[in-house]
């Protein structure tokens, strides 16, 4: 369309620009994109390239309007097809995250952390899970600040520790059984430190026990059982999450 | 009339013959509370002028603001009728449909009901509902045709038209009664109960000449029955009173020539007698006062001998003038109370039928009750207050009253002397206080309003049980049995006969023994403490807040059954998730919820599986009232409410049942542990529907069985109890196995051959409706039914079997669509290689965790290889609907993506039963929508029924397809996708949605250049 209509300007001003940069062959190449669109393109949610690119031109500097020279493009990319190079930069270049993209990211991170916490924890009074909305509120109260570049699970584990000051909360326990022919003494000692033992049979270094532990200790215990029993012991998960289920009517 | 003093109240309460317990019921805004105002005014508690504006019975702030009644409240009034003094216990009820439960509690403790109908609006939906309640409870109704003044001053009808209008309204009400009557007879006929051929139905209808119809205007404070006018005119016309009374209503006219009453007025074009004698007079009064014609007013006042003060005559507001004249000429309070005293039976007149209905529940005939219980019947009827009569009290509801309304001071009429003394005392007190303040002492609260027995601050809530004494006398401090609604006298009596220790009975069978606290007479907003109370009265009892939840029966005899539960005409169907605004208020919040649950007959509070507090209420207004109560009275904290979280399930598409489709190679997914010789091949398949059904039903059994199986394998020490239970479970388990076998066979697919024996585990949480099938060649022993760990020699299986199953448990707990549990998916393990020997050689050790995550991941991919589908929880919705609004109900169901399953007409009525299935997620505010659409003529009830797969590919994008096809096609949203995105967003999972839809349509944030 624009080719058919003559507009008497020699400057095209771009607004709402998000710049994507890429360094190659000692030169910095830039393309001009719309804000809040690049992430959607990378996630393949936006399929229309015209909704992402402001113009199919590769720049050396977008804000100054310097278009990349043909020879620079050829040395860096091997050809000077602007459209192709734009796509490449779009896919691989350094991205300036826009406001909404950041907002969405933080929001979903917050929700994800709350979901993980709600999934892993119980109300220590009622032995029932907390609704996500309560957890979210409690996180806000702890004053924990989210780190956008760390993963949700790690942060969730940190948050749980902080939450204990705000809510009656505990990690949901795992019910585990250990059966070993040898090395029972050490295992028993360790168990008494970290768990609530439900039933136990200890006889001449043999041990068979059912107990509740914090899921965080599972790996450690597994390692311990393997070493002490020289590969003959066995650790079984009976229940991943011990909690009260079913509806309860308040009376 | 004097204000009722406590001593007088006592005297009246002791004479059961002169007690009348009545309630006022009607559609919303038909004038119940105004009517109650008039009755209250007749006792001098409030001034006649304020009657109708004050709304004395609406003591709550929000009631006054909204102008609707939200709770039933009760007051005791005295009335002199035929030279005898009566005590009338009046209960005002709310009219809004949300509070139907309040009406049922009121109807239960009364003997009569004033059914108020607005003459302009006629019979409204709630009128029908309350008539039905009154009918079911078997109490005496009196019809009050209200707002007749509107016909005159507002609609400006001619007297003739007004007459026709009134006749029609009465006919409408009688039609409803007739319908109830006929359907009851039909029911009896169905049950083959012997009935007389022609049942006399004349007694049940409303007939003005019988006196059970009052024509009134509560706003202007007047009301009359035909007998009032018959008395007035009998002498004038020279006709006998009885004759006139009969002919005043109907097709009769008075012929001035022959000076007698003739019939067929309508045919002859004559004015009916009622118009001639009653309405025209009313009209002329209204006209005279509206036009302020002094001469006529004078004439009227002298004729009626009503004295109006001259300063009132000079007032500019003619409305006020009418009110003050009419309320003196035909006082409504007196008229209605006369009527009540005359027609409503006293508590002694309790009919046999009603007693039997109260005592026998679960449709058991009265004669099947234990003889001890049957022996109680005469006490109900006699209403005896003698010593030794068994005490029977029915508590219909709990109310919470702010402490300041509970007075201990006896109300007395003050003589001038006393007034003077009080005045002086108050003055002294004030002076003292001022002195103290001057001295700089701390201000001491003069604790008059504080009720000493409770030792509480006046702002605190006191729970009072409202009920009626059916028999016996109660004194404060008596110790009595409190029988819960589930109490069965047969059990209680049996225990007693065997002389089991009393403590034993209490623990199980819904009985407690408790001391009666203060006994109060209910005086509208206030409570008056009375030490002792006689049968037949409506009273409040304190000190029972810990023993009674919603309703109860109190007795000193174990033979007394718990009264039949109230007929629940409105179910709590609006569900809301609530939580405190501030987390620190959690404990107050929970305490408040408990109080709310106790005090509101229709509210239900529970914690659901996800840990949310769910409040079920009858409708939007009811919800607001509950929240208000919670915030201001019970908890005293701010709460937040939202739609509750709806759980979903995920499954795989169940279209093909042929073996070939199941066994397709592309459905077989492979997974392995990096760096180890461990790999697995799993395929996912939909389970046949019948199998899923069986699993859903037996989930509890499977859960217990898994526990037992686990325990058995471990060989851990168990007590004998476990083993006994274990054998029990195993017989049940075998039965389940048989059922599953049949179900698999019936599916008619060779793929499922031998599937039952291959079951390895159920998931999630070891009990869900998903199955792990073991079709490996090397681990044949892994099975749910046998304890493989002991038999199996295979060490790898023994070590990693549990991890493998745990992986499956994790996979079924969170599906690929939106991390919701799976439903009806079968994972078939076709190959599992775990060559640990070789790993050990190469120095790698395979951990259980690795196996677990491998299985979890492979199951998930296997499910994605099949097309996953969303499963929605469904409500079964029963709507009772009037024929005229059937279409609109269908429209609402359709809009909510519901499906009509059944439509059935109720015999003997024009009501239809429409049964439909509606997704739970679409059901919020469904009830209120259906009510508004059907203008109150439909009452929905929702119960969870089943899980249903939404057969819609969640990844199909309707927008893309539409572009290719016809442009006119309405762009619909992919529902499955919308639900999934909703859940994913809530959980913080990535949502497949663009952040910004149109790049160019963003706000330009650049600076001006």
Describe the structure.
The complex is a heterodimer of chains A (251) and B (1009). Chain A contains eight helices and twelve strands. Chain A is an alpha+beta fold and 251 residues long. A four-stranded antiparallel sheet of chain A has the order 9-10-8-11. The termini of chain A are far apart. The model of chain A has no long low-confidence stretch (mean pLDDT 83). Chain B has 1009 residues and is α+β, with helices and mostly antiparallel strands. Chain B has 35 helices and 34 strands. A nine-stranded mixed sheet of chain B has the order 11-17-16-19-12-10-20-14-15. Chain B has a seven-stranded mixed sheet with strand order 2-3-1-4-5-6-7, sandwiched between helices. In chain B, strands 25, 31, 32, 33 and 34 form a five-stranded antiparallel sheet that branches. In chain B, a hairpin with a 2-residue loop joins strand 2 and strand 3 (84-92). The longest helix of chain B is centred in the N-terminal third of the chain and has 32 residues, at 159-190. The chains are: A alpha+beta (251), B alpha+beta (1009). At the A-B interface, helix 4, helix 5, strand 10, helix 8 and strand 11 of A face helix 21, strand 22, helix 25, helix 29 and helix 35 of B. Strand 12 of chain A pairs antiparallel with strand 22 of chain B. Chain A: Belongs to the SDO1/SBDS family. Chain A: This is Ribosome maturation protein SBDS.
Features of the shown structure:
heterodimer; A: alpha+beta; three-stranded antiparallel beta sheet; 36% helix; 24% strand; elongated; B: 1009 residues; alpha+beta; nine-stranded mixed beta sheet; 35 helices
Q: Summary?
A:
The complex is a heterodimer of chains A (251) and B (1009). By secondary structure, chain A is α+β, with helices and mostly antiparallel strands.
């Amino acid at each position: 369309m624009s080719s058919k209509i003559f507009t008497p300007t020699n400057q095209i001003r771009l607004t709402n620009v998000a710049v994507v940069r890429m360094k190659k062959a000692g030169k910095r190449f830039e393309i001009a994109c719309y804000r809040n669109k690049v992430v959607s393109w990378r996630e393949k949610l936006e399929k229309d390239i015209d909704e992402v690119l402001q113009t199919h031109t590769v720049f050396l500097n977008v804000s100054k309007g310097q278009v990349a020279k043909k020879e620079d493009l050829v040395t860096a990319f091997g050809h000077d097809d602007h459209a192709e190079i734009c796509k490449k930069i779009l896919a691989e270049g350094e991205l300036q995250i826009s406001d909404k993209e950041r907002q969405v990211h933080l929001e979903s991170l917050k929700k994800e952390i709350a979901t993980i916490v709600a999934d892993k924890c119980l109300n220590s009074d009622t032995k029932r899970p907390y609704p996500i909305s309560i957890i979210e509120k409690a996180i806000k109260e702890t004053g924990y600040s989210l780190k956008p570049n760390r993963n949700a699970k790690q942060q969730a584990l940190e948050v749980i520790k902080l939450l204990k000051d705000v809510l009656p909360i505990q990690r949901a326990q795992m019910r585990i059984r250990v059966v070993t022919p040898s090395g029972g003494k050490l295992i028993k000692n360790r168990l008494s430190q970290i768990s609530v033992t439900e039933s136990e049979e200890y006889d001449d270094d043999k041990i068979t026990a059912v107990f509740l532990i914090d899921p965080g200790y599972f790996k450690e215990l597994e390692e311990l059982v393997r070493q002490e029993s020289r590969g003959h012991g066995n650790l079984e998960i009976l229940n991943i999450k011990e909690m009260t289920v079913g509806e309860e009517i308040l009376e | 009339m004097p204000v009722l003093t406590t001593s007088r109240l006592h005297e009246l309460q002791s004479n059961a013959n002169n007690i009348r317990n009545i309630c006022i019921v009607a559609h919303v805004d038909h004038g119940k509370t105004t009517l109650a105002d008039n009755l209250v005014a007749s006792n001098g508690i409030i001034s006649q002028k304020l009657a109708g504006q004050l709304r004395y019975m609406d003591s709550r702030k929000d009631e006054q603001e909204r102008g609707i009644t939200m709770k039933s409240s009760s007051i005791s009034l005295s009335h002199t009728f035929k030279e005898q003094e009566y005590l009338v216990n009046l209960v005002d009820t709310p009219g809004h449909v949300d509070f139907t439960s309040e009406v049922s509690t009121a109807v239960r403790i009364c003997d009569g009901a004033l059914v108020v109908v607005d003459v302009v609006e006629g019979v409204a939906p709630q009128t029908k509902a309350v008539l039905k309640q009154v009918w079911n409870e078997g109490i005496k109704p009196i019809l009050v045709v209200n707002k007749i003044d509107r016909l005159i001053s507002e609609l400006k009808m001619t007297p003739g038209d007004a007459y026709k209008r009134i006749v029609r309204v009465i006919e409408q009400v009688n039609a409803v009664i007739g319908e109830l009557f006929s359907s009851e007879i039909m029911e009896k006929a169905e049950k083959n109960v012997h009935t007389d051929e022609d049942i006399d139905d004349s007694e049940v209808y409303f007939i003005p000449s019988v006196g059970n119809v009052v024509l009134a205007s509560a706003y202007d404070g007047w009301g009359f029955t035909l007998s009032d006018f018959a008395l007035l005119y009998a002498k004038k016309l020279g006709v006998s009173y009885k004759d006139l009374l009969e002919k005043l209503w109907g097709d009769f006219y008075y012929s001035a020539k022959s000076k007698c009453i003739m019939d067929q007025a309508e045919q002859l074009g004559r004015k009916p007698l009622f118009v001639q004698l009653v309405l025209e007079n009313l009209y002329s009064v209204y006209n005279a006062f509206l036009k302020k014609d002094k001469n006529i007013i004078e004439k009227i006042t002298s004729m009626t001998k009503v004295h109006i003060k001259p300063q009132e005559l000079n007032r500019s507001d003619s409305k006020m003038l009418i009110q003050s004249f009419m309320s003196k000429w035909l006082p409504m309070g007196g008229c209605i109370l006369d009527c009540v005293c005359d027609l409503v039976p006293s508590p002694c007149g309790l009919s046999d039928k009603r007693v039997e209905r109260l005592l026998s529940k679960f449709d058991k005939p009265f004669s099947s009750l234990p003889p001890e219980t049957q022996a109680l019947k005469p006490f109900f009827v006699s209403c005896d207050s003698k010593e030794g009569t068994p005490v029977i009290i029915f508590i219909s509801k709990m109310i919470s009253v702010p402490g300041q309304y509970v007075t201990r001071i006896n109300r007395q009429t003050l003589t001038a002397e006393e007034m003077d003394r009080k005045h002086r005392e108050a003055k002294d007190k004030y002076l003292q206080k001022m002195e103290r303040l001057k001295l700089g002492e701390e201000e001491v609260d003069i604790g008059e309003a504080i009720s000493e027995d409770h030792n509480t601050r006046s702002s605190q809530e006191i729970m009072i049980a409202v009920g009626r004494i059916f028999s016996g006398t109660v004194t404060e401090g008596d110790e009595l049995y409190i029988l819960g609604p589930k109490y069965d006298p047969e059990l209680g009596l049996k225990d007693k006969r065997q002389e089991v220790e009393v403590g034993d009975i209490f623990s199980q069978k819904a009985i407690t023994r408790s001391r009666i606290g203060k006994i109060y007479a209910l005086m509208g907003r206030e409570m008056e403490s009375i030490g002792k109370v006689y049968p037949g009265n409506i009273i409040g009892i304190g000190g029972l807040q810990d023993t009674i939840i919603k309703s109860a029966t109190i007795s000193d005899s174990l033979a007394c059954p718990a009264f039949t539960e109230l007929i629940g005409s409105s179910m709590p169907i609006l569900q809301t998730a609530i939580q405190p605004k501030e987390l620190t208020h959690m404990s107050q919040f929970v305490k408040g919820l408990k109080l709310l649950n106790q005090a509101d007959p229709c509210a239900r509070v529970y914690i659901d599986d996800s840990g949310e507090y769910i409040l079920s209420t009858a409708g939007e207004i009811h919800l607001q009232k509950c929240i208000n109560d919670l915030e201001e009275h019970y908890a005293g904290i701010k709460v937040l409410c939202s739609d509750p979280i709806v759980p979903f399930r995920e499954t795989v598409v169940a279209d093909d049942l042929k073996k070939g489709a199941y066994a397709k190679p592309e459905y077989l997914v492979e997974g392995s542990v990096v760096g180890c010789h461990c790999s697995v091949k799993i395929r996912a398949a939909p389970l046949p529907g019948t199998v899923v059904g069986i699993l859903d039903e037996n989930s509890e059994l499977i859960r217990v069985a898994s526990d037992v199986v686990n325990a058995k394998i471990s060989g851990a020490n168990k007590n004998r109890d476990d083993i006994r239970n274990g054998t029990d479970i195993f017989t049940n388990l075998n039965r389940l196995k048989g059922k599953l076998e049949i179900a698999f066979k019936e599916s008619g697919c060779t793929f499922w051959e031998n599937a039952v024996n291959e079951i390895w585990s159920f998931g999630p949480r070891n009990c869900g409706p998903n199955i792990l099938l073991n079709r490996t060649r090397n681990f044949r022993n892994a099975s749910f039914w046998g304890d493989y760990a002991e038999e199996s020699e295979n060490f790898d299986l023994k070590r990693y079997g549990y991890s493998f199953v745990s992986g499956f448990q994790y996979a079924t707990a969170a599906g690929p669509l939106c991390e919701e549990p799976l439903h009806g998916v079968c994972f078939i393990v076709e190959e599992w290689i775990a060559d640990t020997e070789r790993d050990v050689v190469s120095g790698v050790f395979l951990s259980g965790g690795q196996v677990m995550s491998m299985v979890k991941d492979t199951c998930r991919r296997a499910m994605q290889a099949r097309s996953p589908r969303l499963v929605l929880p469904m409500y079964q919705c029963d709507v009772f609907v009037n024929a005229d609004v059937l279409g609109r109900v269908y429209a609402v169901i359709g809009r909510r993506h519901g499906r009509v399953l059944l439509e059935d007409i109720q015999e003997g009525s024009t009501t239809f039963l429409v049964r439909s299935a509606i997704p739970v997620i679409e059901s919020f505010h469904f009830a209120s929508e259906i009510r508004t659409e059907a203008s109150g003529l439909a009452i929905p009830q929702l119960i969870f029924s089943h899980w249903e797969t939404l057969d819609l590919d969640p990844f199909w994008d309707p927008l893309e397809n539409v572009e290719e096809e016809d442009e006119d096609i309405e762009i619909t949203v992919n529902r499955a996708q919308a639900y999934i995105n909703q859940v994913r967003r809530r959980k913080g999972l990535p949502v497949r949605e663009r952040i910004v839809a149109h790049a160019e349509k963003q706000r330009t944030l650049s600076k001006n250049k």
